[in-house]
From TrEMBL:
PROSITE patterns membership: FAD_PCMH (PS51387)
Keyword Oxidoreductase: yes
Organism lineage string: Bacteria, Pseudomonadati, Pseudomonadota, Alphaproteobacteria, Rhodobacterales
InterPro entries: CO_DH_flav_C, CO_DH_flav_C_dom_sf, Diverse_Substr_Oxidored, FAD-bd_PCMH, FAD-bd_PCMH-like_sf, FAD-bd_PCMH_sub1, FAD-bd_PCMH_sub2, Mopterin_DH_FAD-bd
Any one Gene Ontology molecular-function term assigned to this protein's record: FAD binding
Alphabetically ordered keywords of this record: FAD, Flavoprotein, Oxidoreductase
Official protein name in the record: Xanthine dehydrogenase family protein subunit M
Record domain FAD-binding PCMH-type: where: 1-177
Length: 284
């Protein structure tokens, strides 16, 4: 399909972006890679009379790895994440997850900022960022503010970012311990039927901490504190695993769609989560 007519803007700096957002309010939207927004416009599911392309706005394409934290600019693409050696070493779960998003063509354009700002429950990075306890920085006329990923998602396509704010970067504490990103999809390039991000810290034979989030099983990503807590203090025996799975199943709320009925999705969620926990534990 062909999108409705729109005006196209390509400002050179953030001030230009914010001015257009201020002038047109709800009628204006920023575009990063365009690989979620343009399909929505073509399907007439998004009406965007004023489209603001972020490609020429500098300062949002860096990956910085410090001692305690990693900062990723909003315009960093999924392909950049995959190709960045030091990042793959510092936070290998990012590369493992990015490799399971769409296909290479989409990953060359799709950005980290677009993926997390979009608010689509099918996007892989929101749950991943919740697992990693990331913080999103957004900027508006009032200056920058930080929003924890775990507080960012309110409902499908509804987030804590205001319409006149732009997400500029994602910051995460340096991940520790074992990790796994597991995703079940119908075919290569598809969105998840269920996906799980798990990060586990082990002390001796005991689980010292566990962070777990799942994707596409509710209208937001689900970070389950209870699922992580069920593993802490255990050596991941079968009872602990079952308790974590039960906690997560209590937190998700899948709906029937072309990926299957609710019972099937709950089943897949359990299988994927068990697999992710076991792999993260084996790497911890
Ligand atoms: P855009 O499409 O440009 O923007 C998406 C939304 O975010 C828009 O509402 C836009 O206004 C907003 N936005 C973008 N950047 C900012 C910013 N800096 N600040 C504030 N708002 C912003 N994704 C997955 O996670 N997993 C998949 O398996 C997957 N499969 C796909 C398969 C296909 C065939 C396609 C076409 C896409 C798929 N995607 C998938 C989506 C892809 O990863 C998108 O590119 C990504 O979700 C959005 O990134 P983008 O840079 O293209 O954002």
């Amino acid at each position: 399909m062909i999108p409705a007519a729109f005006d196209y803007y390509r400002p050179k700096d953030m001030d230009g972006v914010l001015s257009i957002l201020e002038e047109h309010g709800d009628d204006a939207r920023v575009m990063a890679g365009g690989h979620s927004l343009i399909p929505m416009m073509k399907l007439r599911m998004a009406d965007v009379p004023h489209l603001i392309d972020l490609q020429d706005v500098g300062g949002m394409s860096d990956i910085e790895i410090g001692g305690d934290a990693i900062s990723i600019g909003a315009m960093v693409t999924q392909a950049d994440i995959i190709d960045h050696g030091p990042l793959a070493e510092a936070a290998p779960i990012l590369r493992e997850a990015a490799l399971q998003i769409a296909d290479p063509q989409v990953r060359y354009m799709g950005t980290v900022g677009g993926n997390v700002a979009n608010g689509d429950p099918g996007n892989d990075m929101p749950g991943l960022m919740q697992c990693l306890d990331a913080v999103f920085t957004v900027v508006g006329r009032g200056g920058p503010r930080d929003i924890p990923a775990r507080d960012f998602y309110e409902a499908a396509y509804m987030t804590a970012r205001e319409d006149d704010e732009v997400l500029t970067k994602v910051t995460l504490p340096m991940p520790r311990g074992g990790y796994a990103y597991e995703k079940q999809k119908r075919k290569i390039g598809d969105y998840a039927t269920a996906a799980a991000a798990v990060q586990i810290v082990k002390e001796g034979d005991t689980c010292a901490s566990a962070a777990i989030a799942m994707t596409n099983l509710s209208d937001t990503p689900i970070y389950s504190e209870a699922a992580g807590a069920a593993l802490v203090g255990t050596s991941l025996d079968d009872a602990a695993l079952k308790a974590a799975l039960a906690a997560m199943l209590g937190d998700i709320d899948p709906t029937e769609d072309n990926r299957g009925p609710v019972a099937f999705k709950n089943h897949v969620a359990g299988v994927i989560l068990r697999r992710a926990i076991e792999r993260a534990w084996s790497r911890a």
